Amino acid sequence: MLAFLLEETLGLIDMLYSHFSQQITSYSVKKPHLIVALSGGVDSMVLLRLAGMYAKEKQLECMAVHVNHGLSLHANDWEVSCASYCKELDIPLYIERVNLKVSPQESLEEVARKARYHALEKHMRANSLLLTGQHQDDQVETFFLALKRGSGPAGLSSMPSIIPLKTGYKCRPLLFTSRQHITEYAQQHQLTWVEDESNQDTRFDRNFLRHEITPVLSQRWSSFASAVSRSAQLCAEQEALLVELLQPKLQLFQNEFQGLSIKQIEPESLASRNMLLRLWLKLFAIPLPSQTQLHILWNEVAMAQQDANPCLELGIVQIRRYQGYIYCVPKYQDVSLWKKTLEGKIALPDNLGELELRAKFSHHEKGSILQLRAPLPNEKVEVRFNVIGLAPHPEKRQHSRKMKKLYQEYEVPTWQRSRLPMVFYNDELAAVAGLFVCKAFSGQECELLWHKPVSE
Questions:
Q1: Residue 44 marked in a binding site
Q2: Does a structural domain hold residue 229?
Q3: 389 in a labelled binding site
Q4: What is the pTM of this model?
Q5: Each residue's pLDDT tens digit, 295-337
């Protein structure tokens, strides 16, 4: 009997490392640089041991990063525990301490997650694999949370095994391994780990599922977790197929500024149109919209009356319409009250770049350049935004026109109009950066150069 148990134990050890090794190999990254996201919990401690074994076998670099959020009274103890085990395994450990600032619109959990990954990504290289300890039981919880939100195939796909980052990849090599197997592995190797007391608080949805729901389901159906994992994989495959089939259409329906053509998408079926809208929004790295938000986007923005100026806010972005296209734009700050004396080069507000008034140069320089006369000694030059009631007379034009009409002629989208720097000599409009110089201020003594950021 003892021999049987020993054989079973050794089998589990070999199986878990073999599975881990296969997962890392399947990522097809040549000479990967392994980075373990080490929290000190059982999942990450087991992950660290497996990564260390793999790195030693394959002669690869391996390191660990522990992010201390300072949220728990035991946070410093966890840090010590991580440092102790890394020293035992001879794996370099980097400690990242973060300060969290939570706005009323954000959850502490989400802010902590973003801060954690920002800290981890600082250590990434092109060939780095950032290894995190999510397992099959975590996948089941994620599936249920998506189900609660009424998600489609994209949401029900839950967590993928590998995700490309700006640099390197984030990988979950234990995603098809149960929590029970991970814990048994840790016990067999006499590992010590920390327990985050917040994981017991069932006021949090994930903890409620973990402690109250999934144990009951797994007790009734022993293979429930693996079945949910398969369903998530099937949803991921279905989503990937839809993307593959619709991606060529999406590219065809966009202009050079990533605006989506209303005329081209309108004949599509409701299902196809909604999927195309989701794919388009995904380009801007924002959370997927709900069915209600998609309905509003199409019916109240895309299909609004011709003379309307519709706007839908989705988190940190806005959906706007202009000349038959819908655009996804940032939520800009109101700069209408901003003003500043223009002497040489000045920084503009809200990431609008820099504005420069200088003597005319002979060589070409990147940027939006206008030529105008030099200010007189008694003329104060000032930059303002969104000054109302103006009817300027651009040079090379026969008449003055209201700014609204000029914006339309110059094809300036409605959301950009309040963000164009206006240059005044005393209280008279001399130029609108990027558009025109007023006739009374035409000349060639000076250049007005707007160094715009790429996003503008």
A1: yes
A2: no
A3: no
A4: 0.78
A5: 999 999 999 998 899 999 998 899 999 999 999 999 999 999 9
